[in-house]
């Protein structure tokens, strides 16, 4: 588990920028599962309500970007300047779960979407996170995201003419590395993974997946967030 100091500082970074608006925010990645090193960045995901105006969300996102950099300074870490924190709408995370995380033209094995599309990261970050705010909403989303990861692996095993096991997929399944998650901590609690429907028709699940109807609205300014992130605190 991350230190209390890190959880409190990460929560403050979110609340200072977004107040009580997020659906949930979580600490995720190596900082959440005790695999981080001095070279690791601190991964944060903030999910916003769909009715928050984009103009307000963008202003708050800019403040959060600065807080994200300051958080790394506090803990002597190197921030990810390409993706300085992850902020999306609930609709964007929903779209990732519903198919955006995947390359739907791939087959027979279902592959993940391209690296420069954030849907796959939002799903895996929520599946592997520790809540900072919105604990109840996070619990629902982390279960859905964990199910998405597991369904993906089980579908690929099925199309490879191997049976879908009753137990969660082996820790050496290559998809875990593709998702960049630790299979031990997916869903945060083992009971959440165990609650996934193992009687699912995986072909039907695959056929229900759809491309997102529109691009994530906040990501249109990713170059701006990157520019904000490289400006020293107090700089112009």
Automatic annotation (TrEMBL):
Organism: Nocardia jiangxiensis
UniProt protein name: Nucleotidyltransferase domain-containing protein
Signal peptide limits: none
Top-level taxonomic group: Bacteria
Polymerase nucleotidyl transferase domain: residues covered: 23-60
CDD domains xrefs: NT_KNTase_like
């Amino acid at each position: 588990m991350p230190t209390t100091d890190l959880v409190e500082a990460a929560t403050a970074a979110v609340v200072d920028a977004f107040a009580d608006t997020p659906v949930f925010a979580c600490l995720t990645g190596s900082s959440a599962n005790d695999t981080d090193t001095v070279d690791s960045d601190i991964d944060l995901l903030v999910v916003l309500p769909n009715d928050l105006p984009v103009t307000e969300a963008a202003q708050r996102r800019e403040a959060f970007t600065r807080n994200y950099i300051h958080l790394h300074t506090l803990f002597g870490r190197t921030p990810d300047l390409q993706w300085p924190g992850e902020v999306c709408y609930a609709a964007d995370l929903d779209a990732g779960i519903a198919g955006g995380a995947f390359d739907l033209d791939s087959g027979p094995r279902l592959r993940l979407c391209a690296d420069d599309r954030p849907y796959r990261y939002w799903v895996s970050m929520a599946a592997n996170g520790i809540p900072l705010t919105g604990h109840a909403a996070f619990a629902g989303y982390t279960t859905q995201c964990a199910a998405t990861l597991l369904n993906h692996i089980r579908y690929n095993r099925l199309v490879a003419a191997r049976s879908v096991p009753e137990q969660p997929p082996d820790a050496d399944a290559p998809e875990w590395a593709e998702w960049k998650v630790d299979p031990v901590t997916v869903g945060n609690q083992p009971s959440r993974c165990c609650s996934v429907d193992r009687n699912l028709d995986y072909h039907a699940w695959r056929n229900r997946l759809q491309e997102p109807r529109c691009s994530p609205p906040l990501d249109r300014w990713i170059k701006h967030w990157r520019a904000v992130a490289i400006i020293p605190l107090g700089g112009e």
